[in-house]
């Protein structure tokens, strides 16, 4: 996958790390005064590999991250996208690890794995139960030192197709997907390393050769250009020995000179437009060149972005959203990378909005900013740091990312200490200075992306942007790929045996200790005390949600949740936002199919004050007519925008086919344009009065606080939240008469086809639900599943393919989902049909063993963070599960026999009972899929209705 450097930076920015050496007293940072630390030890192997170790025994798991200091910034014009492409290649074979193991066996060991590439680096990472730790060192060291001899032309061609599918899925087949390409090509000179996107161009990828791969590896993949971080349940001394054994013999690579900062300036403003085949809404972006990361101005620019758009009092929000109602949201942000930086304004406007009016509103907002600097907002932004600091250290993989990032880019794993200080020291004068220096009256790149045929909305004077667009030809021969034979080579001689190591001692997962209390109004409170970080997460579930809405006003609960967060009877919308920010807390309300959830997190010391705000939000709505009208307008805009996403269209239409027109679950929980337009403020009030009741509420708390403290903080809510009877409507499930049928939705010009296949299966309340989830693991449970292994690894048709069972109290669907290259639609359908149809025949004793290992050993990873623990509590309260249900379900899994798995397959996973839905380009695909053997496709519109 591709990740922006800022993503890694965000993970690292607020982590406090103590040096293993003693710091001078005058260097002590404000962040250290929190008494929170993350110790580490660093050493360097003779071959130049820098290693950072962090010991954390809170969970029996280990994260391993290898950060290579090479991203797309090392590429050359004509060979773009190569760093990301090589990341894909590196996950294939190596000399001592069997073919396919890298992607397949790690999930089967109970772990997770992935990689990411951005402009300035490439990272590979795994999280595994501690018993598989040395196996990961074996795999990672073999990838770093012994993979290049195994690369074949066949593997190269297959991975090209995978990367091209990734580009289609995330760029070419989505609205605004070409925006970054247009901006980079015009912001940076042609010879600048940021002139192209990380994914690169399709012609460059197609032209890549085996020699290119080998040259890239030999140039940049030496251990002396890498940092290895190991974080988790390890012994430092033993880990040092293991690292030396597995990585020490790898040959040192070329010496790679550091790139120097390459900030750019623009001699003129450039305005470009593009007619987007998929967009439904016009979008304006303005991008100003700024500074590289760690530049002294970066921190003030980061804060400037938050001040301009990060709150309801910010000038962009007030002008564009509140006053002129031109868009549902606006964002501004600084992104500083290794060589240069960018400051971006982004507005996706309401349908039909002239982008010239948006630009005028931005200009007016900036004038207001200059005249009315909000110093209080500056302080609130800084207040959030402590919260973000702890949230960035909950998981061992987050810690690994942060330590690697600091080591590679600042030559100091503990550099985040200084970053927290630098941000804290930003003054009003600093923010004004960087605004004047980089934004005010400066040149920029501006893009107007508008729906096809709506060029009247583009900025005056904009010129048309040129973008390469791939043409997919049906049956194109060179896109039929396969794994091919394994490479023939002479294996590298090593001092140490590089055979697969054995598992260590199996870590046993135990359910966390759970307590249960009760408030005066009868609300049950479920809790888990966990003191790893000084945070508390909470969730109040209110049964009902979407399920309680009138069908003709679907989306009502969603809109109500949004409105409740826009002020209380005692606080305006901006005052409520400020109160939450001053606590460094997060609070949100969402509506789901069967519930509304008031959730959030806060510093443990602020839990009592945060809950007081939650009580005010839930019990004392403001019913602000202005905010209601703004939110409704925003929702209608968002619904219009969703029409541009083929995956959203497929999912919503699949659900409609499952539940029909007469069941509430056949309508999206967010609503439709038809159902939302008639929702009034009175409708929201009536829904609130009837359904927001203590009688259907449960509270869940996990974190660094005692049961007694939680119950004391909730006492007022227990006394003041009244109960009334909530009537849940009954919906009869429609006759499931679509088995064996084929449905098609036209998405003109689609480079990919979205495929959904499935059937109605089980309620989560059903005793067989867990067994069906277990049984699905071999078929579609992640990258080790047969769907992924066949459609992506063997055929190169897709970027990913999965199957899963939805979680509902109502009977829920089992579904298969993927997005495939358009001209591979028919063969992909046949593969899905075959894999599901032959599942019982192919599921044997080996699959039983793999399934049990995969699920049992992943438990510690799956329940590591506070939100995971909240999830445990919510399942207990909703389905009345015993506190130790996880252990009971694990025992149930252990006791399952091959016959049990076969019974599940034959009862719930029969392919003839499934139907298929495709969203794709009708002109090229409809005739093809009619050859599938399911009869002639039934055509639907983008809302899931029969086409007339």
TrEMBL record:
Residues 359-386 form a coiled coil. Keywords: Coiled coil, Hydrolase, Protease. Gene3D superfamilies: Metalloenzyme, LuxS/M16 peptidase-like. The keyword Protease applies. Residues 51-171, 530-647 form the Peptidase M16 N-terminal domain. It holds the Pfam family Peptidase_M16_C. The keyword Repressor does not apply. InterPro entries: Metalloenz_LuxS/M16 (IPR011249), MPP/UQCRC_Complex (IPR050361), Pept_M16_N (IPR011765), Peptidase_M16_C (IPR007863). One of its GO terms (molecular function) is peptidase activity. Its EC number is 3.4.24.-. Residues 208-383, 678-853 form the Peptidase M16 C-terminal domain. Belongs to the peptidase M16 family. PANTHER family: METALLOPROTEASE, MITOCHONDRIAL-PROCESSING PEPTIDASE SUBUNIT ALPHA. This is Putative zinc protease. It comes from Kordia antarctica. The lineage of its organism: Bacteria, Pseudomonadati, Bacteroidota, Flavobacteriia, Flavobacteriales.
